[in-house]
Amino acid sequence: MHHVPWYGPLYLEAYKLERDSDRPSDALHIVERGLGEIPRYGPLWFGAFRLCEGLDLEESAYDLPRTIEMIERATGSISRELLWKVHLEAAQAHERAAMMFVEANPDGALDEVLTSSRTRFARAALACPPNLCWKVWLAGGKMELTAGRYDIARTLFQRAWEVVPEKGRSAVLLECARLEEFVGDMDLARAILCKARRDSALDWKIWLESVNLEIRCEMPCRASAIACEALETHTGTGRLWAALVQLRHREGERVQSLALKQSLRAVPKSGEVWGEAARIHLNPFSPLFDLDKAAQHLAFATKFTPQYGDSFLETLRYELLTKWIIPATQSFIAQTEALLDETEYVDATNIFIDVSKHARHAARAILEASEQASSDNVLKFDSDDGATVDTRELELRCSNADPNYGKLWFRCRIKPSDTARNVLVRAKERIAEDLAKYAHIYLTAVLRRTGGIAWLRKDLFSAGKSNDIAEDSVEWDALLDNRMRVVPPIEELLAENDGMGLLESSISGADFTTGLYAANTPEAIESLSLPDRRKLLFGSDLLLSWKSP
After folding, report:
1. Which of 217, 206, 126 is nearest to 172 (CA)?
2. d(CA 111, CA 89)
3. For 457-517, what is the HEC assignment?
4. Residue 413: is its pLDDT beyond 70?
5. Measured distance CA(263)–CA(478) in Å, rounded
């Protein structure tokens, strides 16, 4: 920056470094330095808007004084072709601030505090090139949806449809379908997506939205059928394959494993698919629960598709398991391993009778320790303990990758100014809370696998093959996977005489398909508030959502 002060990308990289390190004031200082040298460099202005918005909202200054001052400065300096985008940024910043204001002040009327946003949208439409106006109409329509003005939103979406170029028509249809789902007309939403699939079959996003709509409507069979049809054309789209793998969970582990193998043959470098593979091995109810394999698959996922944030959050779940839950319960694991090594068993039934006894004893101890915070029990699970796990290396990797999408990622991202590090720290608290609550289930999965390994070792020893098959070989893995499929499930291991015992009857493997327990239960659209409904349907959209400049 000292030797080539006229080169904008240097300031941009320096600002990102400070921003990602949670030093927004230092980042803003670098931006100001850059703007002093090259006042017409657009990316720095947009970076400044994000920083100022974040600082304003941290101080609960919902009128955005810093942000508006920066925007007014930009209108006098930035190149003319970007002026419309400045107004669009201002409109969306006002909209986000209005929603946060109403959240903090429940008595406030959202429709009334959106006046500034509407004014900026109008200025953006006036300054926008004709071929880009459709984006402004869509953004304005989404704002009106959040305010509950559905007819005006439809009018703006219709206007977008009238001016959108051919290549953008599928994006407008997708938004129209979301609008109808937002207001609860599922049949019309399906009809719009059906038209979009017919007219724009080559746009994979239309197919993915169709799958997601059926998932939200709790129609997994229909979602699977659409995903299979989509993959006949879009064979190289990892997000469609990943959706299919997750949908196959309902059909059993074998069917899901077949779908995973098929996916990896089609898209071997898809981080989304490798992430689903890791989720299978992290699910404590799965016969294939295996933390070592999960670690391998997560390494592939974050390497091949670093922009997919869910892979980093699943890596966080793995690290909390291996650095917190497993060490805290190691005494139970060691006792079980010692018993299985020392005891001569006649058949496998006796092995798992002992595993079940140890699992129930451990589960009771963990549940008592978590319920009685004042107890002297060594096992004490709470968010403070989880927060002590050192995840700085993962935070650094995630910060450098700067992910921008993912179901869990958007769930943990509250503000558009949140950095990757902010999202990961917030996710750490939520995942730690889940792991503390269900630690006894994860421990039982570990003990179950320990019993399966002991069973296989004894059988190979009896057959005289223990020296022929190394435990780190592909053959061993295949034998162990097959053995784990016939090992008694967690429900049996934790069952008491009075039924489910230490496992609630409502809990199943479907509750652990991702790293956040709450994200695995579909929420009815009509039961959500308008802002939450907006976030669920439009929060994962990359068309107009915030991106790094």
Report:
1. 206
2. 19
3. HHHHHHCCCCCCCCCCCHHHHHHHHHHHCCCCCHHHHHCECCECCCCCCCCCHHHHCCCCH
4. yes
5. 19
User: Distance (Å, rounded) from C-alpha 433 to C-alpha 517?
Assistant: 10
**85 phi and psi angles, rounded to 5 deg:** -70, -30
Question: What pLDDT is recorded for position 371?
Answer: 67
Instruction: Report phi then psi at 349, rounded to 5.
Output: -55, -45
The alpha carbon dihedral of 467, 468, 473, 478 has a sign of negative
**In sequence order, what are the residues at sequence separation of 6 or more whose Cβ sits closer than 8 angstroms to the Cβ of residue 262?**
241
The residues spanned by each domain of the chain are 1-128, 314-511
Query: Residue length, the chain?
Result: 549
Q: Fill in the amino acid letter for 12.
A: L
The first and second tokens of residue 223, run together, are 């979602």
Helix axes 220-233, 204-216, angle to 10 degrees: 170
62 sits in which H/E element: none
What pLDDT score does 501 carry? 67
Residue 499, class by beta-carbon neighbours within 10 Å (0-12 exposed, 13-18 middle, 19+ buried)? exposed
- Angle at the Cα of 324 from the Cα atoms of 319 and 325, rounded to 5 degrees: 100
Report how far residue 514's alpha carbon sits from residue 520's, in angstroms, rounded to the nearest whole number: 7
Q: Which residues pair with 305 in a beta bridge?
A: none
Q: How far apart are CA 193 and CA 212, in angstroms?
A: 11
Phi, psi of 499 (to 5 degrees): 115, -130
The pair of three-digit structure tokens given for residue 195, joined into one six-digit string: 């038209």
Q: Is the dihedral of CA 50, 55, 59, 64 positive or negative?
A: negative
Q: How far apart are CA 398 and CA 419, in angstroms?
A: 10
From CA 451, how far away is CA 355, in angstroms rounded?
6
- The residue type of 110 is L
pLDDT in tens, 205-250: 999 999 999 998 989 999 999 999 999 999 999 999 999 999 999 9
Quick one: three-class SS letters along 87-133? Answer: HHHHHHHHHHHHHHHHHHCCCCCCCHHHHHHHHHHHHHHHHCCHHHH
- 177 in Cβ contact with 207 (< 8 Å): no
CB 429 within 8 A of CB 391: no
Distance from C-alpha of 132 to C-alpha of 118, rounded to nearest angstrom: 18
What CATH number has the domain spanning 1-128? 1.25.40
pLDDT one-digit tens code per residue, 331-358: 999 999 999 988 888 788 889 999 999 9
**Section 36-51 average pLDDT:** 94
Q: Determine the Cα–Cα distance for residues 458 and 147; give it in Å rounded to an integer.
A: 66
The CB density around residue 68, as the number of other CB atoms within 10 Å, is 19
- CA torsion angle for 380, 382, 385, 386 (degrees, to 10)? 130
Contact between 150 and 509 under an 8 Å Cβ cutoff? The reply is: no
Residues 18-37 have pLDDT tens digits of 998 889 999 999 999 999 99
